[in-house]
Amino acid sequence: MLACPLCQATLAQLDNGVACPAGHRFDRARQGYLNLLPVQHKNSRDPGDNQAMVEARRDFLDAGHYAPVARRLAQLAAERQPQAWLDIGCGEGYYTAQIAQALPAADGYALDISREAVKRACRRAPEVTWMVASMARVPMADASCSFIASVFSPLDWQEARRLLAPGGGLMRVGPTSGHLMELREVLYDEVRPYADDKHLALVPAGMTHAHGEILEFRLSLVEAKARADLLAMTPHGWRASAEKRAQVIEQPEPFVVTVSMRYDYFVRQD
């Protein structure tokens, strides 16, 4: 299943890590993950989300605020009963762990480019093969996955198609144009509309849109920390002014915001 990120040969288990026939070896970190991101594939010294962003997202998600989003994703994964699945862009593993729980008999893999995220993700589901790796150069064999989850993550569509076995599918979860609207209305003088279905035009030949649905609910954030965590884990946290952020965090009343997600499932036909 795993492929060497340097030469693409098959990686086999060896002691406390993996190695390919050419002698490229990758040891397992103390936390349990494999670092399959060679230095030449990095765009910066520590790519991906930093420690502060990862911890804010972990605290917010662990408080259960997005539990319905994860629960529905796990249900949709379980309905498809894949033999091998991948969470591509797994972050700190909140959604990954729930997929793993829904698919106890399947082989689970997860990757993110952020080492800080994967270090924390390992603790959630030790049975999953966790990797620090590039989403544009996934160190897995062609047609090795029957289900891929992409949650709030950039996606290389051609790479996803390469990884999917014929008949396998990609579940993409992302925000609709109404997601966090109340928050955006406070933070910005003008809320710019955007098309939440523009990804449909990026789907490569040989993949078809097989399922789509929207999940929407209202969330009441009572604690100031929850509001601060939400800001820290979204782009709004650094786009908005300090004054606007304080207005959200410090208001005396609960902050009520709409959570709106679309789930799109794409199947590889050939």
TrEMBL record:
Domain 23S rRNA (guanine(745)-N(1))-methyltransferase N-terminal: 3-45
GO BP annotations listed: methylation
Keyword ATP-binding listed: no
Domain Methyltransferase: 86-168
Residue sites binding S-adenosyl-L-methionine per the record: 66, 92-93, 179
Upper lineage: Bacteria, Pseudomonadati, Pseudomonadota, Gammaproteobacteria, Pseudomonadales
Alphabetically ordered keywords of this record: Metal-binding, Methyltransferase, S-adenosyl-L-methionine, Transferase, Zinc
InterPro entries registered for this protein in UniProt: Methyltransf_25, Methyltransf_Superfamily, RlmA_N, rRNA_m1G-MeTrfase_A_prd, SAM-dependent_MTases_sf
Domain of life: Bacteria
Descriptive protein name: 23S rRNA m(1)G-745 methyltransferase
Record GO terms (molecular function): metal ion binding; methyltransferase activity
Positions bound to Zn(2+): 4, 7, 20, 24
